[in-house]
Amino acid sequence: MRFPSAFLAVKDILEQYLKGREKEVKDIMGELFNQERATELYGKEMAREAAREAEYKKSLDIAKKLLRRCMSIDDVAEATSLPIEEVKALSANLCA
Q1: Half-sphere exposure at residue 92, Cβ-oriented, CA atoms within 13 angstroms
Q2: Pick from 86, 85, 94: which is nearest to 67 by CA?
């Protein structure tokens, strides 16, 4: 494919311009990469946090169901991996 001479002239001008500012271009590209990477990491952390929150809520729901059947606090804490103090607080309202 043959490019028009105007395109080649612009290409040469742009190439010369960028060569003269190579460090600046690299710095800008590096900063853009860093921002993109930070955004990606933030998104992944938010997804992990959402998964932890969902798992915690599911554990609470299971604990409530087990406590409604008057399962022992120790067994509920073990089955759900919730702290025993938290299970005791749930139990006060469900098995009273």
Answers
A1: 5
A2: 94
pLDDT score at 12: 83
User: How far apart (Å, rounded) are the C-alpha atoms in residues 58 and 56?
Assistant: 5
* Measured distance CA(72)–CA(38) in Å, rounded: 45
Helix (H, G, I), strand (E, B) or coil at 70: coil
pLDDT at 29: 85
Predicted pLDDT at 78: 96
> What CA–CA distance (Å, rounded) separates 47 from 79?
25
CA dihedral (21, 23, 25, 30) in degrees, to 10, reads 180
Contact, 73 vs 96, CB < 8 A? Answer: no
- What span, in angstroms and rounded, lies between the C-alpha atoms of 43 and 81? 27
Residue spans of the chain under pLDDT 70: 1, 3, 95-96
Q: What is the DSSP letter of 3?
A: -
